[in-house]
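Task card 7
Instruction: Convert sequence to structure tokens.
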Amino acid sequence: MRIGFNILFCLIFIVAISVGQTASADFLPGTDDIPLMDGLSLPETNDFAFDTPAGQILAFDADTSFSQKQVLSFYQKTLTAMGWEQSKSNHFKRGNDTLILSFPKKGSVHFDITLATPGH
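Output:
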């Protein structure tokens, strides 16, 4: 009986570690290459997605305990390393795709993303 408990405990531990590791590789909703900063949490009911002939428009809010400066620093470093260009302190562009970060209130980050359809 003791051996079965130890095996079960080890399996639960391995699953918990795996889940923790994949959580750090999350991306912003509707994207597959814009990372979600660790420490941002996305409420399930606040996202907006709209498809147009020219592409997709995404908007959502995230809660955070980080400062505006810390969030901007993360996205400045991460996005520029991924080929995005920074046009203003909170505006990023890659090809015809855009990302705008805003901070409507303390502890909140708003994302406006426009992803162009290839060829537009």
